[in-house]
Amino acid sequence: MLKVALLAFLVAASQDTAVFKDDQLRLAFTHPGTWTVSKRQKDMTTYSLPIENTTDRATLEIARASFRSEPEVWQKVQEHANKQLQREVVRQWQQEILGVPMLLTLIRYSEKGVSMNTLTGLLYTRTPLKMLFRLTGPESDFEKVEFEFQNTIQTLRSFEEGGLEPEDPSKPAVTAPKVVEKIDIRPPKKVTFESTASKPQVIVGPVVVDLTVSTRKMQARLPKGWTFEEVKENGFLARHPDLAAPVAVDVYSVLDSDPPKNALFKKSSASLGDFKVVAKRQDVIDKPTNGQMTANAVWRTGETAAGKAFTFDGVVANDEHYALLSYRSANESERNLLEELLSILSVAPAP
């Protein structure tokens, strides 16, 4: 069932994506474009989510909550409130995201003769207001709904300087700023997470890889010190002596392939599947590169069943072609070399 849900999620990822953002919470995440806003209120946004192979839809409510006590108190409140409503509390647990706990409660109840599930979660951040969500759908298809949501929430990112930290009720309360900085990250406008004030110096990679992309002769250029192997028509493995493994590189035409960001979304979603806990996620969005391309990337560190994991999924694109990159190891210190590759790698028609 999980494999079926993963396939459905990756198929959905080929569609356009959109961004939820909240300036007061200073949080944002990327979600499938098939999610539609059904209601927008001052402190809450409600989405309607399609459920594959059914005419049913799930509902996702995202709100701001004020809460400063211990996690156990929150969970007790959830348990008591649902018992008052004669709803069954199936499970309560915690899940770490961006280094802070997400306090989760799964409940079951009947509505108009249909068995329903609701998953509620509070992001337990040391902030004046905390993100609260409620995901509701038919129990028969809730596994698919929850799987898609869990993949989506892993794209969550914060605009707090220094990142997020867990709430600590023993410390003085954090006060909200008088003026909330407006952060406009609505697609298709560009989002800047890293400074792009000055145009980067052009660097032409000296290592040339000859490829064929959609019957067209192409060249990929790599930085000095890199080598390549296992060349196929539109892809190859890039190696560096200081990396534990090769970087998979595949080159596509924008005319007959997924848009670059959608391809990255699919690749990043697939690599997410092996994580038990994502401790940190960082994004590079629409960053001009030394190779005269535009880069987007997702970096993750966390835990898998095999131990510590570090993953990198990236894409560099121009108006006609793009290169999709993927790498996995247990050593985050390798990031500098991967950033060099992302910055200098270019693809262009062969002369």
Polypeptide structure, described:
This protein has 351 residues and is an alpha+beta fold. 17% of the residues lie in helices and 44% in strands. The chain has 5 helices and 20 strands. The strands form 4 sheets. Strands 3-4-5-9-8-7-6 form a 7-stranded antiparallel beta sheet, with helices on both faces. Strands 13-14-15-19-18-17-16 form a 7-stranded antiparallel beta sheet, sandwiched between helices. It has a 3-stranded antiparallel beta sheet with strand order 1-2-10, with no helix packed on it. The radius of gyration is 22 Å and the shape is elongated.
Structure characteristics:
seven-stranded antiparallel beta sheet; alpha+beta; elongated
Strand runs, count: 20
Sheet with the most strands: spatial strand order: 3-4-5-9-8-7-6
Radius of gyration: 22 Å
Largest sheet: 7 strands, antiparallel
N-to-C SSE string, H for helix and E for strand: HEEEEEHEEEEHEEEEEEHEEEEHE
Mean pLDDT: 85
Helical content (DSSP H or I, runs of 4+): 10-25%
Indicate the proportion of strand residues. Answer: 35-45%
User: Counting H and I runs of at least 4 residues, what is the number of helices?
Assistant: 5
- Which stretches are poorly predicted, pLDDT < 50 over at least 5 residues? 1-14, 178-197
Report the span from N to C terminus: 49 Å
Pairing-aware structural class of the strands and helices? alpha+beta
Q: State the shape.
A: elongated
Write the layout of secondary structure elements.
Blueprint lengths: L1 H12 L3 E6 L4 E6 L3 E5 L3 E7 L6 E9 L5 H14 L3 E10 L2 E12 L2 E10 L6 E9 L3 H12 L3 E2 L48 E7 L2 E7 L4 E3 L5 E5 L7 E7 L6 H13 L2 E14 L5 E11 L2 E11 L3 E9 L5 H10 L1 E4 L2
Antiparallel strand pairs: 1-2, 2-10, 3-4, 4-5, 5-9, 6-7, 7-8, 8-9, 11-12, 12-20, 13-14, 14-15, 15-19, 16-17, 17-18, 18-19
